[in-house]
Amino acid sequence: MAARLGNNNTEEFDGLNNEEIAWSKLRDAKNRKRVLFARAVGLEDVVFGSLSMPCLKLNFDGIFGYLPQNKIDNYEFKGLHSFLGKTFEFVVEELITEEGNKTGTFVANRIEALRILSNRFWNTAQTDRIYEAFIRGIDPYNLYLLVEGVAVRMNRTEVDYSLYEDLREIFNIGDSIEVKITSIEKPEEGISDGFLEVSARILNKDPWDNIVNYKERSFYLGKLTRIRPDLGFFIELEPGLAVLCNVPPGAHGRKFKKGDELEVKISTIDKEERRIRGLIILPRNRIGASSKNFRNSVLRRGASRG
Questions:
Q1: Is residue 148 part of a domain?
Q2: Backbone φ and ψ of 197, nearest 5°
Q3: Residues 41 and 108 in one domain
């Protein structure tokens, strides 16, 4: 994210209290079109002229201001409640004071701040750099992000090594996520608006480094993460390492749900294709003292000896 405005020259603030210092920073930022950051602490309807508008209430170092819904983003949000507690970039659009007061309130504009940040970003951005991205939208398969004001879509395959079935169950609008730039084409006036690809997965350890801990024809416990009628069951040994299994024999009438712990026998490990195939071992198929067949055979042997 862009560097936050700091207090580099304390002499100009001598004799001022904290609120007056914050007000001075707001006034300076308005004059210079600087980007500031503030936390959303409330949600209020505010009247601007004859129009009432839902606004995020911002707290900038003790000075409260308002970020109107139509100044948050060009993206259409269904509600603003998920933004409470989040930090937003903004430029000061208007300062409002009452006669006799040294401080007042401010009206913020985030769309303009994002434009300033995006221009700055394109001038300095390079592949392999890491940024904090703002989640502005989510569907089951994609995160819609803002990286320093630049909009980018990140598919779930780049979110994590674990393949989430529905990203809406994992993330919320307004959350932040660290991403690395994997591909970039800077804008060319009149030709291109620029192109950006990012990945969060690349920042994590590759779980396939741990495949040495698993062997073919061996048995392991895992958690059921997905059921695909056309493919089978996905059993996760550890985050990012999943075994694809057919529907187990004898499963008719049994209900399976996500999170169930199941035993699997690994049939094949394909390191090139990064695929693991296996079989689900249901409890009644296990061999041992807990097996009904094992107990019956013991009883039969005992009876024959008697």
A1: yes
A2: -125, 140
A3: yes
Average pLDDT estimate for 175-186:
96
**Structural domain boundaries, residue 140:** 125-203
140-158 burial code (b ≥16 CB/10 A, e <16) = eebbbbbbbbbbbebebeb
How many domains is the chain built from? 3
pTM equals 0.74
3 domain-assigned? no
Cβ(240)–Cβ(225) below 8 Å: no
Q: How many helices (H) and strands (E) does the chain have?
A: 3, 15
CATH code of the domain covering residue 47 = 2.40.50.140
Average pLDDT, the chain: 87
d(CA 283, CA 272): 32
CA distances from residue 145 to 103, 112, 284 in whole angstroms, order as listed: 35, 17, 48
